[in-house]
Hints:
The protein is an alpha+beta fold. It is built from 26 helices and 20 strands.
Amino acid sequence: MLVDSLYFCDENHDYCGVDIEEGAVEICKLRLWLSMVADIEDEPNEVEPLPNIDFNIRQGNSLIGFTEVEEVVTEQGDASLTNYGGGVGESVKEMYEDIITAVERHREAKSASTATNARRVAESRIADHTDKLDEKVVNEFHESGAEYVTKEDLEKFHPFHWVLEFASVYADGGFNIVIGNPPWDTVKHSRDDYFPKFDEVFRTRDQSEKNRIQEELLEDESIAAGWEQHKEEMKTQATYYNNSSNYRLQNPTVDGRGVASENELSALFLERVLELTSEESYVSQILPGILFSGSIGKDLRVELLDNTTVNSLVHFENKGIFDDLHDQYKFGVLTFKNSGQTEDLKGIFDQRDTGVLRNLDQKAVSVPKQVLLEFSPEARIFPAVTSQTQVEVLNTIFSHPSLKTDVADAWTAIPLREELHSARDSDRFLETPENADYPVYGGSNIYQFHHDNLLLDLNGPKYWSVGEETDSETSAKSRIRTKRYNSGDLKKAIYTEFGGESTSKSQIGFVNDLLTDHRDEELCELDIRLDCSEYRIGYRDITNKTNERTLIASVLPKSVVCEDTLQTIRPFKIDPAEEDLSDFPLHSAYKRAYSDREMFVMVGLLNSIPFDFIMSKKVETHISKYKFAESQVPRLTDGDDWFQFISERAARLNCYGESFEEMRDRLGGIDTVVEHDARQETQSELDAAAFHAYGLNREQTKFVLDDFYRLQDPRFMTDEYFERVLEKYDELEVEGPYQ
């Protein structure tokens, strides 16, 4: 009945509701009255006198206003918005007790005239005290950065002071149950919110019709002015939600960087519910999928795990459930008690039929908190699990370190965010290979263990560029060198290694003095060693968990550079020694981050089905750096079981063609596999070995293979391929990793 709303029940089983639209509130009251009248007609002798509901269904903005009664003063003498009072002037407690008297008189009224008079008194007192609290809200807007907001401006946002509007509920101990279906939009201007005032069917029109109607309506100066005012109001509210101390869970940090808030209304409503409810309250909310899988929901998810007891989470993919939503839209039904901790999350994901809610005990999966924490340490994304076996597989995988974890005497995998940007660095690209010295690779130029179209029908390079010696002003490599120099990684490494922090000198001053003493040259761009001077791993940035493979990686030839759709794993770590300081250029300070054989065991594991299983649970359309780095891989090194087996097969698959002649020699003259069926056989052996390296048993391996997403017309991942992997798994169980 109510849109953009919250529903409540207190200990007396009184039901309450709030909506920002006055019309929705009146319609709700009418429907409730009609429902009660219908009950009288059915059982006239068993129905109690009709209750007064004027103070149960209220109009206002659920997100702006006071939620607490108790007065708490900070050390600075100020009080937060939710705890306003602090002994200055009339207290909130006095205000709501003043209102309770009139509200109770209204509820106990035996005649219409008495009820009407009591309601007028109550509403008058609410209005009077609301005016006082609104002054404080204005100050909150000012403190959040919207200094221009006046008392009159605030009225347009319809602040709702819970302690006043539901004073009697607060007096009885607060709400016991909160049910909500908050809006799944962001706080931004929307023509679908504004123009229906002038065209009732505006929302149902197609885009071209909306464009035409909007253009016609904006010819009216008053409508155009109102549209501008609407946009300004949305901007002001966004500023408040972004910066107000009342919403501390809306600006999480992921991968060391703050997540830009998009002012998701559902996220704001969920945080408001957490503030409104007591430790004994139960909450049920229908929320968009972004709150369970998006970075913006991180702090809310942490709050749910650490400070509430989640009873269940049922996650749906909208396949005909809501007609107005795209069939791939995802949402969840969340229920929790607002106290305790969640040690095991009871839930199930990617459901397409709401019937699961009727037999949840039989369908739900128990996900231990440890799995929730290890699945996504940075963003705390909830894994989209659909079975208990899936949880067990994840638990086994999580026994291995993440790629970003430092492991003693093991290789490291440091992803570089990008070498070149296809738009910002386009001035360094040529569109034909004529007069070019090397290609610029993108994601479409590689496939698993394929680095060109010699063995597979891949796109050729879209761009090319020239060498630094040809023209440094147009060279892509020159641009990369400048970027790496400006990043300051080399400068910082030298400064830290040789005690610059113990001096009063700046980083550049210390490093320049040090190098001048050793080689008579200050630090310069030529000291930067380009990653493309060595073989390195690249992986596609753009992906989808419904692709044949989610993670696609290959060892790249030397010399090629990459634009942003092809991310790379840096082949070097900067570790300067005393003897390096005399070198010019200072390339000896760059040490290999992994050996040749470690590089191939790494690319073999990244291209394996178990690693794909992890990534497919995390990504939507891009493999972000932090999701890649926090994912788990057995850190195999020379002498470990399966190291030689996987490394050798990955090298034989990857090292074909002239560009890998040097690498074949470095590996002792290996024989490459180029024929299609032989490559399939070799890769199936590698996939089977990866299952063993992860420690997955046969039941878990079969589950992952059966669970793997199937295309209708696969290029490689056919049913026959999956069967072959399981056969190889069984063979290796007997033969071991050394054959």
